[in-house]
TrEMBL record:
GO terms for molecular function: nicotinamide phosphoribosyltransferase activity; nicotinate phosphoribosyltransferase activity. Residues 167-347 form the Nicotinate/nicotinamide phosphoribosyltransferase domain. Belongs to the NAPRTase family. NCBIfam families: NAPRTase_put, PRK09243.1-2, PRK12484.1. This is Nicotinate phosphoribosyltransferase. Catalyzes the first step in the biosynthesis of NAD from nicotinic acid, the ATP-dependent synthesis of beta-nicotinate D-ribonucleotide from nicotinate and 5-phospho-D-ribose 1-phosphate. GO terms for biological process: NAD+ biosynthetic process via the salvage pathway. InterPro entries: Aldolase_TIM (IPR013785), N/Namide_PRibTrfase (IPR041525), NAPRTase_C (IPR041619), NAPRTase_N (IPR040727), Nic_PRibTrfase-Fam (IPR007229), Nic_PRibTrfase_pncB (IPR006405), Nicotinate_pribotase-like_C (IPR036068). PANTHER family: NICOTINATE PHOSPHORIBOSYLTRANSFERASE. Its EC number is 6.3.4.21. Residues 14-144 form the Nicotinate phosphoribosyltransferase N-terminal domain. GO terms for cellular component: cytosol. It catalyses: 5-phospho-alpha-D-ribose 1-diphosphate + nicotinate + ATP + H2O = nicotinate beta-D-ribonucleotide + ADP + phosphate + diphosphate.
Amino acid sequence: MKITKDLYTGSLALLTDFYQLTMAYAYWKAGKGDQEAVFNLFFRKHPFNGGFTVAAGLEYVVDYCRNFRFEKKDLDYLKEMKAPDGSPQFEKGFLDYLSEMRFSCDIEAVEEGTIVFPNAPMLRVKGPLIQCQLLETPLLNILNFQTLIATKAARITLAAKGEPVLEFGLRRAQGIDGALAASRAAFIGGCTSTSNVMAGRLFGIPVSGTHAHSWIMSFETELEAFEAYADAFPDQSVFLVDTYDTIQGVKNAIKVGEKLRSMGKELIGIRIDSGDLAYFSNQARELLDQAGFPNAKIVASNDLDEYLISSLKTQEASINVWGVGTKLVTAFDQPALGAVYKLSGIKSPEGEWIPKIKVSQQSLKINIPGIHNVRRYYSAGKAVADMIYLEGQEVDSKGTVIIDPIDATRRKRIMPAFYQSEELLKPIFEKGKKVYKCPDIQSIRKRTQDQLKTFDKTHKRLVNPHVYPVGLEENLHHLRMDLVLKAKEIEDESN
């Protein structure tokens, strides 16, 4: 995938918040621009009040970082910027620094399709402070949205219980970029196809679609419209039956299906886009079966989401395929994931890594200091807990306690010797060189499905899911608390 080649021209370095550039300039002025730092990208709460989140967007991150540079047109724009007193906003020396800067960071990240949890890093950036800082906004922009949509898609496909979910939200998506990223993320989350043809070309996603009500309305009769469509697509005939009268629409579809069968073809199915979907799907199923079309699919659409699909399942609706648009690609009930990007360590002039912490009145907003990773433990193929630990810190194989980063009373004892384990952060870039091969999108989608199978069904409930245990290894917990108390002491002394 080459997003910049197909959608953009040149650098995207200015796709950032202005304060990232002002901080970068101030770092440069202070002589700190090349000081090494480490930042972690994570989120604090599952979206949709759910029990899991699906990581997505890493391939965009790889593409962005490989092309990260300031081109002449970027620098010319920055050169023209003025401070309030009319002087140049940025000195020439700083612009020269940016012109020569090339991406040289280390990046570790969880692979796309991985199930992730609050407070654990999804991505870690280590390298020159200016570069790490300038990457904050674009990385959050990419991962926040695609992770949100992939998670929504996973919830919807779980509600569909293995039946195909078609994504067709292009017309309701948040602009061109939003539509393309949403189609990609929805497929990663579990959708089987998209209506977005450009997404199909760019990402290799299967495309699907039939016809709209306008097709029916352009003919004198519904039957004539169905016949004309069947003539054009004898092997792909799925008829939208609710333009005028749904039951009569099903009967007309059956008539055309009988003509198709006489030619050695078969009616693929019908689509219902309005009304009482449970009632009309059951009526349609009865008519199709009586007419000898038990294999004809019934596709449902009309503002579906995981809750409505679950309800229709409970009502025993005769729906085989689900078409989901607006509620999926806009993440209708939660428009943002809220992931953040925080400094967790900085290297001293003597070469020592100094852990950094942000202290807040809200425990939820106190970050995790130091250079850490995430280890997932499995028992008989089932995920049992995630441990956030300091890299280089030995974990006692006889047992350790993981401590919830928000509520220290929530603890779980882990016996590593009895479990299999996996490190979730994988090397993506080393000193700016890509060392990770992005898998194809079909493999990413399969990873999502495989990952979901490793978690107990209670963690995947749509409402009130059971909380999966994620905690800090004891040494990291104590380091964090010591830094919090030290920061409080300094604050008290200053007052």
